Amino acid sequence: MPLSSASAASAHPLAAYGWDDGWAREFAPYGERGLLPGRVVRVDRGQCDVVTPVGLVRADTEFVTPRDPMRVVCTGDWVAVDADGDPRYARRVLERRTALVRSTSSERSEGQVLAANVDHAVICVSLAVELDLGRIERFLALAWESGGQPLVVLTKADLVPDVTTLSHLVQDVETTAPGVQVLPVSSTAGEGVDVFRAIVSGGTSVLLGISGAGKSTLTNALIGEHVMDVRATRDVDGKGRHTTTTRNLLVLPGGGVLIDTPGVRGVGLWDAEAGVGQVFSEIEELAEHCRFHDCAHGAEPGCAVLAAIEEGTLPERRLDSYRKLVRENRRIVAKTDARLRAEMLRDWKLKGAQGKAAMAAKRGNLR
Questions:
Q1: pLDDT in tens, 246-281
Q2: Residues 334, 340 contacting (CB under 8 angstroms)
Q3: Fold for domain 273-366?
Q4: Please, where in the chain does CATH 3.40.50.300 lie?
Q5: Side-chain half-sphere of 167: how many Cα atoms within 13 Å?
Q6: Which fold has domain 99-260?
């Protein structure tokens, strides 16, 4: 009796890695050419480790490495690889469903894909140091823009023994992350690990955070054994050395797939307008009630955002952070968008003219 479509997908050798009917349909033309499906579990210097129905193979990415850095093979990608040969080659990268992208430090303004085909973007924040809400907002913007569901995990919760203090810290992050679950976890004490395991048991999850955020320790707790190297953080600032140097894709014993990433020093946005809007959804909702549709929330009359700050319902820090990320994102996009560059130049000239007019009027009143 033939297997149903769902049964066939679940019985596939790559089912534990996230293979489903959708990937099967997209891969079908390449299967007819004798290629094997596989998921990239690690990338290193033009080559990648790919798990296939016949096991783990090493494949060269020469044929799928375009000039566009956004299309370079990365951990989490599904690829079509040679069935045999020495060396083997990845012949095709299947269309990504989601992609976690940040801007590079390059002056050429390039995007870098950190992980592909991710369902959950897990932002790890250590409670061993003071919370940096601005950095959390940046990570959240990247996470929302990826198409995955963000989750904030507050690691090392055992270092905050006072329940009231811990509750206040969670509330601070919840205010910073509207619509996002915030979960305190202690990997060493096991607190919250089962809840987190249940969340990531479906689909693919990627761990994000700076070095020392506890990502590798959390990975080991989920796997149930020591698979990722862990080093102690510095007492002075809670920072750790980069124990994870590559992005590694691992299958979790309870189901699901996990991608552990190196500590991210720079969290640069890359065309993340929608992500920024999602992080600051309360500001964008308030902005719909401003008198002017193009209100900059500076000194305009009838500004609903400024009114909320005066009423104490919106922290001024949130508006400052929102403005900063919006400006940064516009600068990044403008580097590759001539229309937006021209628009920003017009705005800059208009504001300059308005400033000169205001100064002239002020001088006139003083005479």
A1: 779 999 998 999 999 887 766 777 778 889 999 999
A2: yes
A3: Ribonucleotide Reductase Protein R1; domain 1 (1.10.40)
A4: 99-260
A5: 3
A6: Rossmann fold (3.40.50)
